[in-house]
């Protein structure tokens, strides 16, 4: 647990970080970014909280089974979208031209249109869940492991 | 001589890789070995992403783009993949170091790694 | 001493290879681009995405990304498994 | 049915991946559900792999383009090179796929009762499925970068499984060595991928092989790839991690990790034969492989003679047997440019080497499992403390005898069949090679006789008088591999003709590999 200043700043910064992460994830197919990058931004909020509040408090809110569940669901969404294209080929982008994210921009510079790219935005969400939960789980587990060690010394 | 200037990014990659390899081989501390590997990894990522640069190219994103002369997108995707894989392997290596430290109380390769066979 | 010689030897060999590659590689900034040009030209039509990198990551080479997500999943599983609380350790 | 055959290459990889993601959830339903699930999935994978193999042997190389509008649309219209990731299964890929799936199935069944008392089993089985998927993924892929990605899945899951029993310090250190070696090897592979990409702007193996100029950079890339993949497969210059990693590997995982190393050997063959092929300076590369093989054979077996830890002894034999594979394939490689020599003995040499790969996966895997069974029952791997176990552990003893006779190349076992092919063909290149191989084989037999005497015969040790036979699932796991060994021993000629020679011909026929993707005659 760090000083009150650090904790207050962490409290203030976390919502901003999370919002930005969400933006990066959801706009991955139109502007630079994507599930991995946004997920990493999201997980950095967890790192901030871990540093500011210490693993003792954070691990009460971030349980490993729950995080595993989120990571699994993200991975399953991703591979499930791959399986969904199996009527044509595995990983076929079946939503291009469909009502879901189906707009097809003409070649060349385009205006920002969220409603494009078929399965890519959905895959971004799946990957983001996987990355967020995965990185957070790694950080929490490692923090707990190193605290136990300190107690034992 | 002119190759050295035009290919300066590749030479920087080679230099960085040599630094990483030197650290990897010369250090005894397990954490420092991992640092060496991470530097080597950074060199490889730099190599991949520099392979995709096209003179005066812009980022390969069509949204509000100013032209269509773009750098190559595939190296960027490969670098992204390689960075994520790097995070995964680093986490794995550090975890095993934590466990070795729990057993031996050492992160020194010479003392903790028993030589057998 | 033998160790230092071995390190120097390895470093010289690998260093020569890498620097030679750097010098012999085609000039920086002028890549051959048959495959990437195809991707840039067809990304919007085939995948509908404006971001060519995202399109490569999730469509043209989506299977690699599945592998990448799997690597991360593997690492998470491995880390959580290895740092599990053992039976013989007292619970908190 | 038609659709299943078309999509079977990707299903053989994607099904175990999906199952691996679901295993943690299955674990919440109880251990019985999870174990059944894992074994069922691996059985399904086995069936899929056999479907793929049948299709490959009947109709030639299978190509599957991921994400394209059709599975066989390798090259987009109006374009010259492949853009998407392509799975390309040839004889070798199908053959090693069968090997990986069989060993994984046996290891998983073996683990059920072997790991019953351990914590963290949900994740253990998850990683086992991931390891199985990555082995098949490496064999089936036709894309270099994809090979790198699956190599990393293999490394991380393999290291975690090796380190699974974290209460033992040697397990943790074995896992650490494995992950360090694998990471460095994978980075070398990645650099060479960058070299190819920078020159040809291609990532597909067949397309690079087609465009290959064999420039100086390509030679450097070859050196890096050969070093990296030899390291991963555990041949001699970098064999030091092998015993430390296999010895402490928990439950049924040591044969799977061994099969993973053999998979990397398969990737090496793929690089040398399909990517470079006749463009190589053949005799140099061939002799490099032969010398690595001879050194592995000799150093492996001499180190094994000194061991008292039963599993460690077996892992040194694993190194030594890998030497035979390299010797066989190296002899074939050295004469690859000479069609008469290839027809006379080169083809047989490569076939012998490849046949030895699958034989080893089975009987070496069997031996590693018997070693683990001894450890499971006795709590020690020290041969000096064992004795007279033949009475109480009859099944383990029988399985050990099968494995030991097969690995020593005693007729009529399959180890003899593959070694004979290597002896006969290497004799044509240089008789010295054959003599060394024979000597190593005799030393192997001597070493396993020693183990047999120390563990199974002799006076019964009082502290192990109450030792009982191993649980059923462990017997079944060992039984699968023993049955495979016996089957291959009974019909060696049939096996060689139906699966080994197609794999050999797939390696020799580089043009076929290229044309399957690039089209053309």
How would you describe what is shown here?
The complex is a heterotetramer of chains A (153), B (117), C (92) and D (521). Chain A is built from four helices and no strands. Chain A is mostly helical. Chain A is elongated and about 55 Å long. Chain A has one domain (4-152). With 117 residues, chain B is an all-alpha fold. Chain B has a single domain (2-58, 68-112), classed as Helix Hairpins (Orthogonal Bundle), CATH 1.10.287. Chain B contains five helices and no strands. Chain B is elongated, with a radius of gyration of 19 Å. The model of chain B has no long low-confidence stretch (mean pLDDT 85). Chain C has 92 residues and is mostly helical. Chain C has one domain. Chain C is built from four helices and no strands. Chain C has helices at 2-24, 34-47, 52-60, 62-82. In chain C, helix 3 (52-60) crosses helix 4 (62-82). The mean pLDDT of chain C is 84. Chain D has 521 residues and is mainly alpha-helical. Chain D has a domain at 281-490. Chain D is 76% helix and 2% strand. Chain D contains 19 helices and two strands. A two-stranded antiparallel sheet of chain D has the order 1-2. In chain D, helix 10 (253-276) runs antiparallel to helix 13. At the C-D interface, helix 1, helix 2 and helix 4 of C face helix 1, helix 4, helix 5, helix 6 and helix 8 of D.
Which spans of chain A have pLDDT < 50 for at least 5 consecutive residues?
none
Radius of gyration of chain B: 19 Å
Helix content of chain A: 55-70%
Strand proportion of chain B = under 5%
Class from helix and strand fractions of chain B = mainly alpha
Strand and helix order of chain A: HHHH
Number of domains of chain B: 1
| Number of domain modules of chain A | 1
Count all strands of chain A and give the number.
0
Compute the number of helices of chain A. Answer: 4
Short overview:
The complex is a heterotetramer of chains A (153), B (117), C (92) and D (521). Chain B has 117 residues and is an all-alpha fold.
Quickly list its features:
heterotetramer; B: about 120 residues; mainly alpha; about 70% helix; about 0% strand; elongated; C: about 90 residues; 4 helices
List the helices and strands and how they pair.
The complex is a heterotetramer of chains A (153), B (117), C (92) and D (521).
Chain B: H1 2-6, H2 8-26, H3 30-51, H4 73-104, H5 109-112
Helix pairs in contact in B: 2-3, 3-4
Chain C: H1 2-24, H2 34-47, H3 52-60, H4 62-82
Helix pairs in contact in C: 2-3, 3-4
Chain D: H1 2-27, H2 31-59, E1 62-65, E2 86-89, H3 91-114, H4 121-140, H5 144-162, H6 169-200, H7 205-211, H8 216-233, H9 241-246, H10 253-276, H11 282-305, H12 310-334, H13 339-378, H14 394-407, H15 414-429, H16 431-456, H17 472-490, H18 492-508, H19 510-518
Antiparallel strand pairs in D: 1-2
Helix pairs in contact in D: 1-2, 1-4, 2-3, 2-4, 3-4, 3-10, 3-13, 3-17, 3-18, 4-5, 4-10, 5-6, 5-10, 6-8, 7-10, 7-19, 8-10, 10-12, 10-13, 11-12, 11-16, 12-13, 12-15, 12-16, 13-14, 13-15, 13-17, 13-18, 14-16, 14-17, 15-16
């Amino acid at each position: 647990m760090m000083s009150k200043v650090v904790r207050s700043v962490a409290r203030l910064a976390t919502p901003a970080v999370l919002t930005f992460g969400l933006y990066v994830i959801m706009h991955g197919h139109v502007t630079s970014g994507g599930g991995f990058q946004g997920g990493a931004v999201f997980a950095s909020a967890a790192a901030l909280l871990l540093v500011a509040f210490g693993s003792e408090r954070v691990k009460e809110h971030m349980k490993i089974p729950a995080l595993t569940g989120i990571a699994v669901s993200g991975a399953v969404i991703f591979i499930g979208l791959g399986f969904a294209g199996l009527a044509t080929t595995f990983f076929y982008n079946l939503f291009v031209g469909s009502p879901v994210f189906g707009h097809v921009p003409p070649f060349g510079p385009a205006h920002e249109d969220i409603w494009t790219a078929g399965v890519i935005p959905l895959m971004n969400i799946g990957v983001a869940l996987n990355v967020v939960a995965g990185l957070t789980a790694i950080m929490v587990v490692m923090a707990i492991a190193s605290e136990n060690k300190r107690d034992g010394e | 001589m002119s190759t050295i200037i035009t290919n300066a990014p590749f030479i920087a990659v080679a230099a960085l890789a040599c630094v990483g390899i030197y650290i990897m081989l010369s250090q005894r501390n397990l954490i420092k070995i991992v640092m060496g590997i991470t530097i080597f990894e950074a060199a490889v990522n730099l190599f991949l992403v520099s392979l995709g640069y096209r003179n005066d190219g812009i980022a390969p994103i069509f949204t509000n783009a100013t032209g269509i002369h773009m750098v190559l997108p595939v190296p960027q995707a490969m670098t992204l993949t390689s960075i994520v894989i790097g995070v995964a392997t680093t986490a794995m290596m550090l975890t095993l170091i934590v466990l070795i430290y729990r057993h031996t109380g050492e992160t020194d390769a010479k003392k903790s790694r028993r030589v057998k066979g | 001493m033998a160790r230092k010689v071995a390190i120097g030897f390895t470093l010289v060999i690998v260093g020569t290879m890498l620097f030679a590659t750097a010098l012999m590689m085609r000039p920086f900034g002028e890549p051959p681009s048959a495959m990437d040009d195809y991707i840039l030209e067809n990304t919007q039509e085939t995948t509908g995405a404006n971001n060519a990198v995202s399109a490569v990551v999730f469509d043209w080479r989506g299977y690699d990304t599945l592998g990448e997500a799997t690597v991360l999943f593997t690492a998470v599983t491995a880390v959580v498994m290895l740092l599990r609380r053992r039976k013989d350790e007292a619970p908190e | 049915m038609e659709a299943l055959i078309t999509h079977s290459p990707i299903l053989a990889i994607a099904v175990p991946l999906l199952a691996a993601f679901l295993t943690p959830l299955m674990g919440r339903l109880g251990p019985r559900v999870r174990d059944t699930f894992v074994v069922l999935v691996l059985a399904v994978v086995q069936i899929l792999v056999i479907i793929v193999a049948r299709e490959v042997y009947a109709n030639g190389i299978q190509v599957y383009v991921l994400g394209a509008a059709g599975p066989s649309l390798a090259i987009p219209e109006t374009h010259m090179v492949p853009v998407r990731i392509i799975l390309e299964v040839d004889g070798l890929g199908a053959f090693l796929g069968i090997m990986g799936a069989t060993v994984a199935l046996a290891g998983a069944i073996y683990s059920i009762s072997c790991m019953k008392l351990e914590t963290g089993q949900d994740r253990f089985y998850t990683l086992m499925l991931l390891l199985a998927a990555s082995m098949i993924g490496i064999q089936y892929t036709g894309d270099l970068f994809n090979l790198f990605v699956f190599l990393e899945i293999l490394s991380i899951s393999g290291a975690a499984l090796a380190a699974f029993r974290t209460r033992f310090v040697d397990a943790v250190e074995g896992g650490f060595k494995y992950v360090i070696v694998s990471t460095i090897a994978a980075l070398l592979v990645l650099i060479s991928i960058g070299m190819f990409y920078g020159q040809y702007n291609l990532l597909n193996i067949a397309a690079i092989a087609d465009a290959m100029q064999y420039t100086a950079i390509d030679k450097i890339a070859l050196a890096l790839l050969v070093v990296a993949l030899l390291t991963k497969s555990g041949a001699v210059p970098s064999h030091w991690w092998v015993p430390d990693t296999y010895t402490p590997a928990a439950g049924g995982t040591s044969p799977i990790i061994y099969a993973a190393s053999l998979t990397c050997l398969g990737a090496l063959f793929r690089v040398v034969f399909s990517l470079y092929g006749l463009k190589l300076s053949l005799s140099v590369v061939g002799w490099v492989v032969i010398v690595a093989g001879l050194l592995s054979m000799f150093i492996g077996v001499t180190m094994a003679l000194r061991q008292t830890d039963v599993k460690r002894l077996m892992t040194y034999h694993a190194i030594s047997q890998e030497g035979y594979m390299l010797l066989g394939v190296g002899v074939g490689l050295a004469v690859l440019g000479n069609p008469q020599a290839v027809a006379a003995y080169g083809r047989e040499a490569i076939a012998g080497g490849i046949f030895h790969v699958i034989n080893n996966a089975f009987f070496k895997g069997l031996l590693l499992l018997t070693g683990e069974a001894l450890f499971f029952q006795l709590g020690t791997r020290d041969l000096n403390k064992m004795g007279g176990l033949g009475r109480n552990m009859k099944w383990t003893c029988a399985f050990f005898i099968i494995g030991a006779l097969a690995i020593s190349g005693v007729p009529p076992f399959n180890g003899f069949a593959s070694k004979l092919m290597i002896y006969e063909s290497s004799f044509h290149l240089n008789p010295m090679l054959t003599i060394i191989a024979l000597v190593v084989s005799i030393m192997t037999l001597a070493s396993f006789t020693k183990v047999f005497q120390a563990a199974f015969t002799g006076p019964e040790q009082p502290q192990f008088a109450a030792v009982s036979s191993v649980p059923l699932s462990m017997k079944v796991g060992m039984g699968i591999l023993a049955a495979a060994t016996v089957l291959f021993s009974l019909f060696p000629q049939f096996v060689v003709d139906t699966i080994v020679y197609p794999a050999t011909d797939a390696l020799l026929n580089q043009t076929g590999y290229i044309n399957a993707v690039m089209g053309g005659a």
